[in-house]
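Chapter review: from sequence to fold.
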Amino acid sequence: MSHVVTYDDGVSISMSQPSEFTPTNLDYMPRAEGDTSVVFKVVLTNNSSEVLEPIVFPEASSGGKPAIMVADVGNPDYPNLGMAPTMSILPGQTIEFYTAFNVADPSNITLEVSPTSFKYENAIFTSIPF
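The token string follows.
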């Protein structure tokens, strides 16, 4: 099940439920002892009449602490993990990518993201069940 936020112009962003995963040895972000690595599928859909130029910087918190984004670009299950798309999304098109975080409490995650920080308010996904 995904959570979806649709903006007035028809652009939408959806976030999947988190899934636990194991980063590869190419992951170069720190993970605190006891943290859990979780991955989310993000879908940007442009149902507006204009080209969407995404600038996506997801942020998360968990268990009252900031979550650390996972940068694991060599992960074979999630290509370019930690790298959000920057290519134009034409009207009527959709793009999917993955983002991941090391979280303190996987049952209590708040994730904040926007299709582009210059035009859209952040969508906030809270207490996404694990």
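Two observations follow directly from the output. The two ends are 11 Å apart (CA to CA). The longest strand covers residues 36-46.
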